[in-house]
Amino acid sequence: MVRTPHQPSTMQKxxxxxxxxxxxxxxxxxxxxxxxxxxxIGAGFAGCYLLHTLRKAGFRTxxxxxxxxxxxxxxxxxYPGARVxxxxxxxxxxxxxxxxxxxxxxQYPGEKxxxxxxxxxxxxxxxxxxxxxxxxxxxxxxxxxxxxxKVKCDDGFLVHTKFLIAGIGFAAKRYFPPWKGLxxxxxxxxxxxxxxxxxxxxxxxxxxxxxxxxTGLQIIQEWGKEIGEEGSLTVFQRTPPTAGPMxxxxxxxxxxxxxxxxxxxxxxxxxxxxSGFTYTVxxxxxxxxxxxxxxxxxxxxxWQMGGFRMFxxxxxxxxxxxxxxxxxxxxxARKTRARVHDPRKRDLVAPLEPLHVFCGKRPSLEQDYYxxxxxxxxxxxxxxxxxxxxxxxxxxxxxxxxxxECDIIAMATGxxxxxxGLKDIDIRGSNGELLREKWDKGTYTHLGMTTSSFPNFFFxxxxxxxxxxxxxxxxxEPQADWILGVLQHMRDEGLxxxxxxxxxxxxxxxxxxxxxxxxxxxxxxxxxxxGNIPGKKVEPLNYAGGLPDYISRIWKEREExxxxxxxx
Length: 568
Hints:
It comes from Periconia digitata. By secondary structure, this protein is of the alpha/beta class.
């Protein structure tokens, strides 16, 4: 049966001619299921905020989401102990209709509460009528003649849209090390990002966790308790995480009411701090301003407050002065080592000498992670000394020939961060080149939201934006507001095409580089620069100049006439 094409909206007509399928030569793109002004890929914070704001502004907008509900990464995150490490109330949308009618139960919500929150957002903002679930976008091709994107899903679902916005986040593509025997394992194995919602029973089982980043840490923290006395847990660690105290606690009714009165100001304040929290790096305070005694008192204060304060509320020169950085590490190591009894395990999880710059890799938060290593049935393997050779039917094969037999393996091996998810989609621009082909040679964007030769295409919380250096909603909302402003400007002026100029993205790439090289973080390989993925080009992937500076720059571009773009 031939589909009848949807009639173009009034708004769409102002954005350019909407050609009916009768005027076209039949092709795989001839019969769209939807003809839109804006299509958003992904139903996390970015997708929900964009759909709500764009619809209010009169744009015919829809979301396509691979999962079955809202939440983005939190729709998929069901691994043991999964919870956010951004503190209440900043990890939420600053939309009054939402925050005035929602209350959180604890400082750092777990995945189940976050799933409930996103379901509430979907219902409260009436998003479901404009969301297509269970569809994975596999390709998008720019049609220069029609000035629109032809977007296809894995089930053949087709959308024609004037503007395409990717809100897929920075952790959309999971990473597996290139071990040949992954499929040979006879037990149960799951990647942390695709964990069965019903969970995995580990009581009395021999379990293994590969990886000790933020996710691996949370799994280890839970499994150390869940295996019981009869089970065993083996942790395979390459680099110890630098984890600070979470200081998790329930939120009282009084605390909730007090916060509700301040929330509008809190959501403004988070845009004025470097990482989008309610606190920031103490730029004017250097370690040299303090005596040794004052320094210890200062560190102790941050430690007791918990959260990311030890990392993001510290001395202004912690990431530029090695002496300050080492002093912060030494304080962390003293605090952490005191909690681990076994000398061998202690030296592996909190070595006296740092293996890399403190906070050079993304820090984590923990509740009782280090205490798990005081249990006789929890062990740790140093992959720097004895790397994993392969996964075999019975378990994990090491380079020295040892096989660690196990029943269940959690692969907490991370993600191809920031660019991986976008490069996974066949996005073909105006010159016929795929986005992955362009970015494999080096990542180029303008303002961390657009890239040349890909007209009318935007992305949020992606490459060369604040992204991994910022709280998610704090980064997403200003970017979405900027995109909305640009689309309104184009509508008002009768413009149908916007494309970043190559020279503008050259300048932006240089700025991203300049903001990164001043930090000690630039001296090492990490997910911040693609160094966690073998063969990936090493380059700064995030804007490290802080959220306020970034917001100022993107709006300056808008106010000065969008000179970095060609508009027609």
